[in-house]
Specification:
The structure is a homodimer of 204-residue chains. Chain A has 204 residues and is mainly alpha-helical. Chain A is built from 9 helices and no strands. Chain A folds into 2 domains: 50 residues, Homeodomain-like (Arc Repressor Mutant, subunit A, Orthogonal Bundle); 137 residues, Orthogonal Bundle (Tetracycline Repressor, domain 2), CATH 1.10.357.10. The longest helix of chain A is centred in the middle third of the chain and has 27 residues. At the A-B interface, helix 6, helix 7, helix 8 and helix 9 of A face helix 6, helix 7, helix 8 and helix 9 of B. Chain B binds a DNA duplex (30 and 30 nucleotides) through helix 1 and helix 3.
Chain lengths: 204, 204
DNA sequence: GATAAAACAGACTAATGGGTTTGGTTTTTT
DNA sequence: AAAAAACCAAACCCATTAGTCTGTTTTATC
């Protein structure tokens, strides 16, 4: 009983290539035809599977982006180890991924937020919700860190979380054109410095 | 001899409205007709003054954006006062401007960098150059701060500068949808905390 | 106030892109 | 083998958009 297995495979292929091209060239600058040419598929194929370009894009957000945000930005910082180390390593990994021309999904979000802001409220909702998921998980990781004695009790977890996200999104913007390796190195030094100051001074 | 006074006035009006709409809806999502309708002007007028949409946009970068980056982000941090205070106040001002739905020009740059990255190298060059101007000036402000005894000698000025820019660009992304006031408040607390640690501990 | 140049209006063109339709082929089920 | 479901190709439709062309109005100059 694999009646929909091919359907799913085809849709998935379209979504993967779609995300790649939307991310690289922007949503509005990437035509459906562009994606189909890349895949040697036809318009008929596309509109058999998806109602519209917009619905197609939303399906990408739901089935690819959200999952990747979880696996790259959220799961690595779960658990009861020192959140400061967890977060530092997670950011380092994400930036290294970015450096090798793959996409780290925090920046994917930022790109699309910039593009759709003001022009498409429905898509913006999905994007903001996903970003919010990251933020919420950062906050609770920090709070858990307080509870477990790793993080200073006086720290404003919400403030730190949005500051981490901000700096990360920003450095990724700079990396698109600047010398990525040098920027990553410097950024990691600064964020380490910043996060180290959050540590609980009582406990080792 | 005011043969070009009207010409300049009209061009300027087009540029101001153009920047506003490009910034709000994106370059590719804003048609020349959209801008002209807003101004009650015609195609003939537009192409009388500008060779193309792209040239029009570049003229906006040159005549509006660069100047504003200077007056909002560079001039305020010049001088020989404590650069940590200068930078803090400058960022605060920029974020307050942003909160009142006007545009702070750091974010204008970021928006366009995101939009044109990968699709238009010529425009990217202008945008990156402008961002670079900001960065270079931040670095030299910090170095001057070292010289004048305000900033710790061990600080990596390049690292701090790109970290400041990063966090600023990032927080602006978050502000587009989140509660701007709360984000600004938190951000300023964090950046103050971060910058205070740069201060020279010897001198008061 | 005639004339020339500058500034502007608006219909038109060509190309692009989202989406539809038609007309098929392959795969699965019975 | 026959019917139905899943899948695919490409011509076609319609709205939009950057850019052109031809003319008209405004403005400066003598």
């Amino acid at each position: 009983m694999q009646k929909s297995t091919k359907r799913i495979a085809t849709m998935h292929k379209m979504q993967v290539t779609g995300l790649e091209m939307f991310y690289k060239n922007g949503y509005y600058s990437t035509s459906v035809d562009d994606i189909l040419k890349e895949l040697n598929l036809s318009k008929g194929a596309f509109y058999y599977h998806f109602k519209s370009k917009e619905e197609f894009f939303i399906s990408i957000l739901q089935s690819l982006v959200v999952k990747k945000v979880y696996s790259m930005l959220i799961e690595p910082i779960e658990g009861h180890d020192n959140p400061i180390d967890l977060i530092t390593n997670c950011l380092e990994d994400a930036l290294q991924t970015a450096e090798h021309n793959e996409y780290d999904y925090g920046f994917v979000l930022q790109n699309f937020i910039t593009e759709f802001n003001g022009s498409n409220p429905e898509i913006m909702k999905y994007l903001n919700d996903t970003l919010k998921i990251w933020e919420v998980n950062l906050v609770s990781t920090l709070q858990r860190g307080k509870f477990n004695g790793y993080v200073d009790r006086h720290i404003d977890c919400e403030g730190v979380a949005s500051y981490i996200i901000s700096s990360f999104l920003g450095i990724r913007t700079l990396m698109v054109e600047g010398s990525a390796t040098a920027l990553r190195y410097r950024y990691m030094q600064q964020i380490r410095f910043y996060l180290r100051a959050m540590a609980n001074k009582q406990t080792a």
